[in-house]
Structures are given as C-alpha cells and as structure tokens.
Amino acid sequence: MNAINARWGSLFDALYGFDVIPITAVQAGEKTSGYNPIRGEAVIAFANSLLDEITPLVSGVWADVVRVWPRFIGSKVVLALLLKNGSTIGLKAPKQFVGFSGSLGPPSAKATPVGVVTNPDKGRIFLEHNGLHLVLEIDRDDSVGRDNSSGIKDITMESALTSIVDMEDSVSAVDAEDKAVIYNNVNGIFRGTLTAPMMKGGKAVTRRMNTDVLFRDDEGKATAISGRAVCLVRNVGHHMFTDAVLTGDGQEVPEGFLDCFMTVASALHDLRSSGNTCNSRTGSIYIVKPKQHGPAEVDLTCQLFSRVEELFGLRRNTIKMGIMDEERRTSVNLRECLRTASERVFFINTGFLDRTGDEIHTCMAAGAVVKKGDMKMQTWFTAYEASNVDVGISCGLPGKGQIGKGMWPKPDSMKGMLEAKVNELMAGASTAWVPSPTGATLHSIHYHRVDVNARHAQLSMRESAKIETILEPPLLKVALSKDAINHELRENAQSILGYVVRWIDLGIGCSKVPDLSNVGLMEDRATLRISSQLLANWIAHGLITEHELHQAFKEMAIIVDQQNARERDYRPMSNNLDTNIAYQAALNLVLDGSKSPNGYTEFILHDARRKVKAAAHSRL
Hints:
Elements: E1 8-10, H1 11-17, H2 25-30, H3 37-54, E2 65-73, E3 76-83, E4 88-89, E5 97-104, E6 109-112, E7 115-118, E8 121-129, E9 132-139, H4 143-147, E10 152-158, E11 162-166, H5 176-191, E12 195-200, E13 203-208, E14 213-217, E15 222-225, E16 230-234, E17 241-246, E18 252-254, H6 255-271, E19 285-289, H7 295-312, E20 319-325, H8 328-331, H9 334-340, E21 345-350, H10 352-362, H11 379-394, E22 402-405, H12 414-420, H13 422-426, E23 431-432, H14 437-449, H15 452-459, H16 467-470, H17 482-506, E24 511-514, E25 520-523, H18 525-540, H19 546-563, H20 581-591, H21 602-619
Parallel strand pairs: 11-16, 16-19, 19-20, 20-21, 21-22, 22-23
Antiparallel strand pairs: 1-10, 2-3, 3-4, 5-8, 5-14, 6-7, 8-9, 9-10, 12-13, 14-15, 17-18, 24-25
Helix pairs in contact: 1-3, 1-14, 5-6, 6-7, 7-9, 10-18, 17-18, 17-19, 17-20, 17-21, 18-20, 20-21
C-alpha cells in the first residue's frame, strides 16, 4: 500500500519529521508539546527556497508572496502572485503553471451588512517542472498556512511515478500459503481493491489505494493525474522452483513461471478496465525479472512472456520486461540482453548488492576479496555502473524506458540521502530505489535539480566503459591487519544473524536491521549474499578460520538477541545455538557459501523457514 500510494507525498511532513532540517536544542525542548512553530518556520523557509530554485518568480522571492490565485487572460489561465510590496507578478516560466482546483480568488474585499468579506483562499495550484508535478496546498485556516505569508500549508510532491511490488528479495515466501498472500495483494492492486488496516491516533482505520488527482488545466478544462504509482511486479528468478503447483508426476514447477502466470492473470483486470483503478495507460503489464545470467536467460524470459500472452489471448509484447543487471554475465553482455528483449524492455537497473555477491562468488578461487565497505571503490564497480548507463543510452532507453540505480540503505538518514543520491542522477539514472514514501518525496527534489534528459545527452558523448575493466576482480592488494580482519568478521556476522533470524523465525523478508553501532540499515537477501560470500571467501583463503567464524557468531548472537529483545514473537538464539534453526542456517550460509550456486541464499533460507513453519504448525 505504501509503494502504490507513494506517487504523491507531503514535502512538509518529510522535512518536519526527519533530519533534513537539524533539530536544535530549542526545537527539541519544545517538540514534546506537539507542533513546534520554530521547526515549522524552518520547514516553510526550506520550501520557499526550493520554490525559488525550481519555480522562480519574475521578480522577488516566494517568502514575500502574500496571495496566489489563477487568473483568466482571454482563454488561458495564468498564475498570479501578490507580493508584500503590493506588486502582482507571475512565474518566470509561465508554462510551469498547469492547473488549479478549489476556491482561490484575487485579493480583493468588499463591505457587506455583516462585515468585510474577502475572496476565498483555499485550494490547490498545480505546477510542473522537469516532467514532475508539485502541488501548492493553500489554506489560511490551517495552522501552518496561517504562519506562511503565501497561505501555503504544504507542497505535495509527485514522487514515485513507478513502484516495484516484490515477489522476490524483500519478501519471505517459501510455500503455497505465502505465495497466495502475495498473489492476493497483487490482484488487489490491479483490481483497485487493496486495503490495509492500521491504527492512527488510537483509532482503527483502513487505508485504501489513492484515487486520481482531479483539477482544471490552464484552459479551464477538467483533467486528472493518477493518484498511484505505476505498479511494476518483480517476479523471482529462473533458479527458483516451488511446490505451490506440481507437475503430473509430482515435480515442482519453476516459481518464476507461476509468478508470471499469476501476475498476468491479475493484470487482466487492468487491461479490461474491470477494476476500480487504472495501472497502465498504454495497456501493458510490467514485470521486473531479476538474476538473469546473460542473453540466453533473457531469451528464456521472452519465450515465457510470449507463451503466457498466447495463453491469455493478449497482443504480442503486452508484457514488458525490466532487466536487473545484477549478475556478471549480464553486465558484460548487457547490450545483447537489450537486443534480445528489444521489443519488451522498459527498464535496466544496476543492482550493486546482488552484483557484488555474484562478483565475489565468481572470483571465489582467485584470491581474497576486499572488505565489504571497499567494494564501491574497486575498478570493476565504477566500470559496471558506467557501462550500464552507456549501454542504456546507446540502445535508446532515454525517453522510452528507465535506467535505474540502487537503494539508499539508511532509512533514518534522509539528510544523507538528500546530499548523496543526487549523484546517481548525475551518473545517468532516470530512476533510483528509495526505502520509503518519505524517501521518494525527498528524492523527487533531485529530479527537479537535475535535468536527466540533458544529462543523458552529455553522458552520450563520453568514452564508453570497457568490458575488460568490469572483469577486473576485487582482490586484496595489501594484506589486512588482524584487527581489521576481526572487525570485518564481527560486522558481517552480526549483519548476517540480524537479518537471517528475522527472515526465518518471523517471516520478515526486508527490514531495517541495526548494525554493530545500532544504525538501522535496510537489509534483504542481496545484502545477505554479500556478507555470506565475503566470509566464505575469507575462509577459503585463510584470512579467518572456521573456529574464528563460530566464535564471532556466538558473540554476535548475544548482541542480536539484545537488539531484538522488544520484537514481538522473537525467539532468542544465544541460549540454544546448537538447535536453533535460524542460527544454524546463518552459519551454513557462510560454511556452504563457496558451493552454493552463484552464492544465492534462497535455498538455505527457504529450507530453514519451512522447518520453522512446520514446527509452529505442529505445536497448534
């Protein structure tokens, strides 16, 4: 529900509730009493400065605006603004005004028998910049609107135009029961019936999918923008099989085949307009396909999509493909992957986390690899990120498809995200992953500050990254000290245990897991793949011993238990290490890491999760 409704987000809430604007001692002292007017003023100042930056006025600044209203000039509507000095001006780029709704009249007043009546001042002004909308929410009766001279109580940012609904890395789904829940949710999205119960202000409420946003355009005609992100459904990779459906002779079927079938069956509601909402405006179904190893597997996906289209009687190429560039064989053959799926591809994405796990596994026998934190400084990584953009641009994706970059890992550090994630757009990303709707709202600021289309034109003139550079393995060139090795061992052991115990015992596929410094980091199977492969590599090359691994895991189990002590239904590991299923699975991810296919974690995780679920059912 969060993902689908993240199309629009409150800028004021994102700024007020997170660390983009630092909390001073005075603000912190007043925060307990509810709304903090000092912090509110800082939010208003930030918003006015942003408007000055992306929607500047002909003269003056937004902080001096005292009235905003739509005004007809002939058959066109323009935006008029009254400044504190009494002058009426407009936008420097008038075409940025695209519509309005509500009661927003000119700043005139008249005397009546009951007193002075001013024209109403409550409504919405729709602006557009770099292809994204931002909506000025005007209401002088609101406590924030009263404090803002312009009457703007908030700015609603068009944030996540697309959202990935996941059947893969971020979920713990190991059997028919789990898959049925996922399929039901996806079906609810395409039918427009998805709901989510929650508590708000001590009351039970039901969240629903947003309706479309209605307004009048600059000619006074009724128009609408979708209230929801376009749903992209990530199916599992070709390596997964499931017993949710069995063949005639009792064999498991490819789970990705079943995912595709169920995704398309649900999307028929959207294609036939038989649901309550509309997802695709062009009659397409968008499936993101992960963990494909080169063009042969991309071709397999194309064949699968064609067969499913035939089965449901859909036109050719209805199903579009998002290609996750997260395996080495795909990275060096990306151009051929795009050629193979040229009639379907809508998306390519660099997945640093899984890609690093595959990189470590591929060069497992070549030597000891660098520390996890040093991976992004390696030659292969820089070339990989650049090559993905180079290939995407040269193959014609700009304006037709997405070129994506990776996830921001610290959901509580929005200030850091706002400072750092703009670099991804400068590197050529037209989309990037964020950990929350708040993250999407703040990340949308980057797309106003960087014209991605213009950036693509600049990048198209550079020399393309060389495949030979991508193939340079991230091996240690300088021996590490024993202290550095022990620190890396403890950090990775804690990360593995912190994620695995929640995945296996609680069925949480992706969550904010505190690290050794108690900084919450987004963890999923991709981050687990890196940590487990790194330690497996270090054991293989003698940097650590199995005894040292066991000792570190025992120590970290105690810490992880303490970090999860308040988690409902959490079962401690440290008091029964030998029989705890989650703990033993975490160890096996490392001990069996060198022989696990491609270093994938799914097989061990799924087996352990099924055992935990079976044990729970037997106790009922």
